[in-house]
Amino acid sequence: MSTVLQTEGLVKHFGGIVAVDSCTIDVEQGDITGLIGPNGSGKTTLFNLITGVYRPDSGRVSILGRKATGLESHKICHLGLSRTFQITRLFWELTVLENMIVPVRKVGLRPLFGPGMLGDELDRAMELLARVGLTHLKDERADNLSFGQQKLLEFAAVLMAKPDVVLLDEPAGGVNPTMIRFIMDLIRSLNAEGVTFLVVEHNMSMIMELSDRVIVMDQGRTIADGTPAEVQNNPLVLEAYLGS
Amino acid sequence: MSRVGTFLKQYWMFVALGFLLVYPLIWRAPYYHVLGFNTLIVATAATGWNILGGYTGYKSLGHSTFFGINAYLVAITANELGWNPLWSAPLLALGVTVVALVLGWIMARAKGSAFVIATIAMLLIFRLLALNVKSVTGGAPGLSQPLAPWSPEYSRMPFYYYMLFWLVIALLVSAYIRRSRFGLGLLAIRDDEGKANMVGVNTTLSKVLAFGVSAYFIALGGGIWSYAQTHIAPIFAFSILNDVDTVLATMLGGLGTLWGPVLGAFILIPGSDYILFNFGASQFHLAVFGVLMVVIILFLPRGILPSLRDRLAARRETSSAFTGASTMEDLSDSQPRGEVPGREAPAP
Ligand SMILES: Nc1ncnc2c1ncn2[C@@H]1O[C@H](COP(=O)(O)OP(=O)(O)OP(=O)(O)O)[C@@H](O)[C@H]1O
Ligand SMILES: [Mg+2]
After folding, report:
1. Which residue of chain A has the CA closest to B334?
2. Which of A49, B62, B70, B310 is most exposed, with the fewest beta carbons within 10 Å of its own?
3. Residue B338 lies in a domain
4. CB-based burial label for A10 (10 Å; 0-12, 13-18, 19+)
5. Does the distance separating the beta carbons of A140 and B184 come in below 8 Å?
6. Ligand 2 centroid vs A41 CA: distance in angstroms?
């Protein structure tokens, strides 16, 4: 198995506080890796460092064996890593279908100036929309969707960029149990098709059931790393959650 | 709907174009030709400006920099090299676009109001240059160039048709961009630039290209304006009032729509001319502009076309509700609207 995402000694300060503190993780190809930690432990900031939202103060990121430290976000996407946001972000004034067409793995000059909706992409977009049950809303503006539908759309849209690795930031945040099941099944079936996942989630039963491996962060550092069972019995983890 | 109404709805574009084609033949006084020409310049500029300001949301108040640069380039090449502005204006505008791409690359770092201020600063710098590099620009008194060869009785008629041609080109380019992947990226930048970048849109490149394309159509107008004026001076060539016309026309008609900038220009320019005509050559029309700007922002924040479209859509919805034509599917489509977490419909 090969490592598709690796960070080494990532550090990020915001003013006086250290949000991410020499964080080293690696994500193996084909895995669903869980990333957990108490509120404010730096999970989202780690995602932001990996995806070029912030530049790390120090440390390295590599994606699919390529150096990716401090690259612009669209270059990260072109390398094959996509993400969703903890608070859903969509192109609110565009339609559902347009939201699907914008994401792209890599586009040459000719397709860039060609028509926005080419046959292949349109087919793929409709396929993915059908998979998340949004086909009937394809011409609706994104801001007319319900909260849950918006989350599904964001998830489906990042898949349009044909990512090898997907980072999900709280995919089950604020959604009902039926929807959580649905999202878990979706993650599993995409994983079976070869997509590697790194999933941040506070829903413990979900993460423990879903993950091949779980990484635990506390105060910007990784404090544990192992199978769900190992992590659940790790005293450091219990301390971080219950602790101080 | 009446038969005329249906016909207009389908063929309004050709009706409008037909009207614009015969307009100078019906209204033959030079005044009308000048007015038509000025309106077309603003309509073309606004259509171009909209590609940046409307599609990406980056509202430049300094794009008349490119109007001014090309006005000077056309005058200088006409004087020194004998170039005919009818072909040199669109050609030199390409050169100005290259300048705009470089400047746009610098400006694209700024966002929001910082961007607006940076573009105003750009305009002021070029105006200062035009005022002070006297050996090239003639300084404050400006430059003259040869008159157009056709007889004065035709007045501005050829200019009018020339600009009408370019307005059509500008609209084709704008429509083409809007449908391209590039254009979709621009709209995505307007909605959420960071997210657009995250899903693979090269946002810097997109913004710079939009900056350049919009500059082209403004530069083109500047070149032809220069020829029509025969005499140009920095305070008119590099004037923020040109930007105000462009931006106001776009916002009045509908920011980010294809036809809005044209509609806005055809209301704004004849309108302000009417005021100028009836209230004398004072600065009164500027006050009216100011009031108009406030009115648009307060009552028509999205411009005429989008507001009309909403109104029509709302009317259609109520009428279909009365005829009982809506299916369950329709209802479920229109129901959920940004709800509280946990209340959404279960996943299929
Ligand atoms: N842009 C920012 N400016 C200042 N401080 C920030 C910023 N982003 C994050 N922080 C701080 O960095 C720390 C880590 O935050 P982060 O959002 O990464 O945590 P998290 O693990 O994602 O938490 P949660 O589970 O609540 O989402 C917190 O103390 C947070 O307040
Ligand atoms: Mg977070």
Report:
1. A144
2. B310
3. no
4. buried
5. no
6. 8
Integer-rounded Cα radius of gyration of chain A: 18
Nearest CA in chain A to B336: A146
> Which of B49, B46, B71 minimizes the C-alpha distance to B60?
B49
Which ligand is located closest to the Cα atom of residue A21? Answer: 1
Compute the distance between CA of residue B196 and CA of residue A102 in angstroms, rounded to an integer. 8
> Is position B323 within any domain?
no
Task: Please give the domain boundaries of chain A with CATH numbers for all domains.
Answer: 1-80+164-244 (3.40.50.300), 90-162 (no CATH)
Distance (Å, whole) CA A95 – CA A45: 30
Would residue B327 count as lying in a domain?
no
| A13 near B CB under 8 A | no
DSSP string, A38-49: STTSSHHHHHHH
Measure B182 CA to nearest chain A CA, in Å.
5
**Pairwise CB contact (< 8 Å): A104 & B202:** no
Pairing of strands B231-232, B143-144: antiparallel
Which residue, by CA, sits nearest to atom 2 of ligand 1? A14
Q: How many CA atoms lie less than 13 Å away from A14 in the CB half-sphere? A: 10
Long-range contacts of A234-240 (CB under 8 A, 24+ apart): A240/A37, A240/A38, A240/A41, A240/A216
- Centre of ligand 1 to C-alpha A175, Å, is 22
Q: How far apart are the first and last CA of chain A?
A: 38
Which two three-digit tokens encode residue A139?
A: 């011409």
Chain B interface includes A171 (CB < 8 A): no
**Per-residue pLDDT for chain B (348 aa), expressed as one digit of tens each?**
577 878 877 788 888 898 999 888 888 888 888 899 999 999 999 999 999 999 999 999 999 999 999 999 999 999 999 999 999 999 999 999 999 999 999 998 999 889 999 999 999 999 999 999 888 888 888 888 888 777 666 667 889 999 999 999 999 999 999 989 999 999 999 999 999 999 999 999 999 999 999 999 999 999 999 999 889 999 999 999 899 999 999 999 999 999 999 999 999 999 888 877 777 666 777 777 778 778 877 877 788 888 888 878 777 766 655 443 333 333 333 333 333 333 333 333
Look at B183 and A89 and tell me if their CB atoms are within 8 Å: no
Round to whole Å and give the CA distance between B62 and B240: 7
CA distance A183 to chain B (A): 9
Residue B127 lies in a domain: yes
Q: Which protein residues are within 6 Å of ligand 1, measured from CB?
A: A 14, 17, 19, 37, 39-45, 86
For chain B, say whether A140 makes contact (Cβ under 8 Å). Answer: yes
- Segments forming the whole domain that contains residue B201: 3-317
Distance from chain centroid for Cα A221: 19
Whichever domain contains B186, its CATH number is 1.10.3470
> Angle at CA A171, nearest 5°, toward A170 and A173?
60
A-chain residues near B345 (CB < 8 A): 146, 148-149
A62 close to A70: Cβ distance less than 8 angstroms: no
- Is B200 close to A140, i.e. CB distance below 8 A? no
Residue A169 CA to residue A87 CA, distance in Å, equals: 8
Cβ(B333)–Cβ(A118) under 8 Å?
no
Distance separating alpha carbons of residues B221 and B60, to the nearest angstrom: 17
ipTM: 0.94
